[in-house]
Amino acid sequence: MSLNRLRGSLRQVLVFSLFVILLMAGYSAYKAFGQSVDDAQTDWAVIGSILPRTDDLTMPSVFEIISGIFAEPRGVNEAFGSIVVREAAFTLREAAVGFAVGVIVGLSIAIVLSSSRLLERALVPHVIASQTIPLIAIAPIVVIWGRKNLDFLPWEWHDWMSVSLIATYLTFFPVAINGLRGLHSPSSEALELMDSYAARRGQTLWRLRLPASLPYLFSAFKIAATASVVGAIVGEISAGVTGGLGRRILLEAQRYTTGPERLYVAVLFAAALGIFVFLTISLVEYSLVRRKGTEAVL
Amino acid sequence: MTSQPAPAVEIRGVTKVFNPAGANEVLALDNIDLNVAAGDFVTLIGPSGCGKSTLLRLVAALVESTEGNVLVNGKTADQARLDRDYSMVFQRAGLFDWRNVSRNIELPLELMGWKAADRHRRSAEMLELVKLNEFADHHPSELSGGMAQRVAIARAMSFRPALLLMDEPFGALDEMTREHMQNELLRIWSETETTVIFVTHSISEAVFLSTRVVVMSPRPGRIAAVIDNELGTRDDSARDTPQFFANVSAVRKVLRAGEPR
Fold this sequence. Notes:
- The complex is a heterodimer of chains A (about 300) and B (about 260).
- Chain A has 10 helices and no strands.
- Chain A is an all-alpha fold.
């Protein structure tokens, strides 16, 4: 890694840290301001009329949230943060499997559709329509199917696989649409060149269309990876699958009054998981795609 | 009878209509006859819209003729394409920017299923031919326009096709680079004994490079004249000979005659 790039990444880390600190400061300031207005018992302020009220229950302090990571819940001999990390790993597995299957499905759709204008025109609207079905509506169906109707598979079907399937539903779409654009991206001269060498379709796909698609695909992968985490969490919640972050968020919401900071911790870890998968894809892109004047987003 | 070598390219009564029977029907080429002998360097010159690029693509079988036929090495153009009898160079070098220079040159060899060791040996030879040995591992974004076009020529010549089809290959280069590339191309042509069909709209380029200049006129595309272009020596010094200027004038005269008044 060159010095310039190192400096660039360092700057991005600094900017991000600064952003997090500013976010915490803004949160604390708003909370303090809202509480001081409340204490003064005036109706003068916007708080309570335009902006929501604040109190310790709805907005635990930054300190409380951070100590919530290290506190051991009653009756458990383990820091809450470490429990949530384990659950995040469970959700990550669902998301990763969902992402991988989504990439394969999305790319296959893109390749099939790119082979014929007629197919593309006929089927792209259906691909788009597939995304109008609300995820929460199909999640229980997928889980019920997984439990009852997939017993013919050579491996045992677990509920988390159904959640992966729900994540796949979100991830295949950007890959298919961006992949299609990428496969169409080579210039007519590049295609004529391959024709002039009497290249077979598969050769043109493998040596021209797919490599030319990589920048398009990686921007899709970044969207798909974060979407797979969202899909896994929402899938867990609406399908009632236990063991992951979705279940944790649901649980902490139900017992919010006895420990509001725990819900905040769970949600922060969910956000961190999304950032983690995004950065992972960016790193792979950085090492794979060679573009003049552009750098991986880090 | 003197033994005439079989023509490398035979174009017989070729007509090309784009969008036939459509609202925007265009007669691009009208009844073209042309023979290109093996070892010839033929340029197609004419104003834009005269169908010179279309004619080149007909020879390459990238476009189908509406009437007439095109024979390359005695076969149909499409069979010649499948047999890899020719190679093409475009105005834009069209190098794949995810491949380094060597691997760009090896592209056609990969498509033909050559073994890696043979490919590497040949790409090294080709880099020698275009004098870019030290750039083997560079990526296209690191090359100048002239260097990129030399790589494109090396790529086109890598499997030693008998016929080279060039579509305004130096059109995007500055004048100095252009003259240098013309000298290089003539050297490569004489070293490899390849037949070349070269599309250009520069009169001096056509006269400097070719053994025959085919002047075309537009709407519909027709051959206005075929001028035999004898220059004696074929190197940089030919640019300043009276013969060179005389031939430039001759080509210009035919081109002017085709202009609408």
